[in-house]
Amino acid sequence: xxxxxxxxxxxxxxxxxxxxxxxxxxxxxxxxxxxxxxxxxxxxxxxxxxxxxxxxxxxxxxxxxxxxxxxxxxxxxxxxxxxxxxxxxxxxxxxxxxxxxxxxxxxxxxxxxxxxxxxxxxxxxxxxxxxxxxxxxxxxxxxxxxxxxxxxxxxxxxxxxxxxxxxxxxxxxxxxxxxxxxxxxxxxxxxxxxxxxxxxxxxxxxxxxxxxxxxxxxxxxxxxxxxxxxxxxxxxxxxxxxxxxxxxxxxxxxxxxxxxxxxxxxxxxxxxxxxxxxxxxxxxxxxxxxxxxxxxxxxxxxxxxxxxxx
Length: 310
Hints:
This protein is of the alpha+beta class. It has 15 helices and four strands. The chain has helices at residues 4-7, 12-23, 26-39, 63-68, 72-87, 131-143, 150-157, 164-191, 198-210, 217-224, 228-239, 243-259, 266-272, 278-289, 293-306, and strands spanning 44-47, 94-97, 103-111, 114-124. It is elongated, with a radius of gyration of 23 Å.
């Protein structure tokens, strides 16, 4: 069970619990299976505070990377590259090439405006390896005091080769999946704990059914069978949110999905999901997600453009 502190994303342990919930979800398990079968690449989901090789032990792990992890010195180079990638990953996916010549990408997964973890892919070459590439990999390994044996060379040369255009398309798809996971974890937060009081369950059901209408606290409290005072006290204790914040979050999750459609006007979306004014919608979206609806949509457009860049 996820604690109330975890649901609010309060610390590193909270992030780990939230990511664990996603890893156990049918959505992630199905996507991971299909993704790996289609691409031959490992896909992992790791919490923000994860300082190990992302694909260690995975069936599709690059054998060269597995060899590097056996030696502390070469492993430290991998972990340093990982740290730099995470450091520079913001609201958009970030791709780097490690000192051994392999490409890795991190795709953020968020709870509201806070990054709680990353989808990770990579350990691939993006162009046909040249002699100079192999020489650089050998030199980097040797500089760490590790012999670049024939086993190392064979493993490096067998690294998966994915051309830039195809790799960028894969990253773009993962960006959309990252949005789905973000929506799912926000839904988990909204549902909070399974052992919630009946009045909260009734309130959730009523809000979900009438979320596009003008919801009043008095009507929802009445539908849940409680006085306004008792309802507010129990609802806040159970969900960690006020009635107003909860309703806003439910509507905003619908709005984020609709914002993926570039043909929908932001004003139309605001009213469709239940907000009474565009100003209220913009203000609430900014407060919850740390960016305006226009900026959110702009980031999606930037992500699409970046996916075309070699």
